[in-house]
Design brief:
Transmembrane segments: 20-41, 53-72, 98-116, 122-143, 174-198, 210-235
Keywords: Membrane, Transmembrane, Transmembrane helix
Structural class: mainly alpha
Order of helices and strands: HHHHHHHHH
Number of strands: 0
Strand content: under 5%
Largest sheet: none
Distance between the termini: 13 Å
C-alpha cells in the first residue's frame, strides 16, 4: 500500500498526462494571477490592515476554488476517463460541495494551527509539552485521511455521508497514513521553502519568478499528487459496482 500510494500518482500522471495537462491549464492561469496578487500584497506598505486581511481572505477562497477545480478535473479524468470540464460562471453542484468541504477542512486546520501556536507557551515552560503540538498535528492528519475519501465521492457524484466515510476507512492501513504524512509534509515543506526564499531574495525578478511561476507550479503539482493518492485510496477502500466505462485505478 505504501509503495502504491507513493509511486502510483507518478504512474497515473504519466499514463494520463494529456488529460491532466488540459485539466490544470486554466486553473494554473488563475493561480498565477492569485500569486501575483499575493506578491502585490507582500510588497504593499500603504494598504490598511483590514483591507489586506479582506484581500487575503478573498485570495484564500480563490485558492480553495482552484484546488477543487483541479481535484474534480483530475479525479473524473483519471477515474471516469472524462475530458476536463470547461470553466463555467455557474458551477456544478459537485464543485460547490467540494468547495464547502475543503473550506471546512481549512477551518479545522486553522483552529488546529492556533492550538499548536498556543502550545508554544507551554513548551517554553518544559520540553515535555512538545508532545502536545505533535499530538494535535498527528490527530489532524489522521482525521483528514479518514474524511478525505468523501472528496473523491463528491467528485464522482457518489453520495457519501461522513458516517459512511468513517465506516469506509475503519480498516485504514497504517501504510496509507504514513504515505499521506510523508507526501504532505515533504510537499508543503518544499512549498514553504520556496515562499521563504521568495521573501528573502532581494533580486526583484528572482523573487517575482518564484512567486509567479515556481510556487503556482508546485502548488498545482501538490494538488494533482494529493488527488491521485486519494483516488487510489478510494479505489482500494470503496469497491462499488461500476459500469464498464470506468477505468481501473489500481491496476
Amino acid at each position: 500500500m505504501l509503495f502504491k500510494l507513493v509511486v502510483g500518482p507518478l504512474y497515473l500522471m504519466k499514463l494520463n498526462r494529456s488529460m491532466i495537462l488540459r485539466g490544470i491549464l486554466m486553473p494554473l492561469l488563475v493561480i498565477l494571477g492569485i500569486q501575483l496578487g499575493y506578491y502585490g500584497l507582500a510588497e504593499s506598505v500603504s494598504s490598511s490592515y483590514a483591507g489586506v486581511l479582506l484581500l487575503k481572505v478573498i485570495f484564500g477562497a480563490f485558492d480553495i476554488a482552484v484546488f477543487c477545480w483541479v481535484f474534480v478535473n483530475t479525479t473524473r479524468s483519471v477515474m471516469l476517463n472524462e475530458p476536463p470540464a470547461r470553466f463555467k460562471l455557474k458551477p456544478h453542484a459537485r464543485d460547490i460541495k467540494c468547495f464547502i468541504y475543503c473550506a471546512a477542512f481549512v477551518g479545522l486546520w486553522t483552529v488546529a494551527s492556533m492550538l499548536m501556536g498556543l502550545s508554544v507557551y507551554l513548551i517554553a515552560q518544559s520540553v515535555v509539552f512538545t508532545v502536545i503540538p505533535l499530538l494535535i498535528l498527528m490527530a489532524m492528519l489522521w482525521l483528514s485521511l479518514r474524511l478525505s475519501p468523501a472528496l473523491v465521492g463528491i467528485a464522482l457524484d457518489n453520495a457519501l455521508s461522513l458516517k459512511a466515510v468513517f465506516r469506509l476507512t475503519q480498516s485504514l492501513p497504517w501504510a496509507a497514513f504514513f504515505a499521506f504524512v510523508i507526501v504532505t509534509v515533504l510537499s508543503y515543506a518544499f512549498s514553504f521553502m520556496m515562499r521563504f526564499i521568495a521573501n528573502l531574495v532581494d533580486l526583484y525578478w528572482v523573487s517575482l519568478t518564484l512567486f509567479w511561476v515556481v510556487i503556482p507550479l508546485v502548488e498545482i503539482l501538490i494538488s494533482v499528487v494529493a488527488t491521485l493518492m486519494l483516488g487510489i485510496l478510494y479505489a482500494e477502500l470503496h469497491q462499488p459496482t461500476t459500469p464498464p466505462s470506468h477505468r481501473e485505478l489500481t491496476t
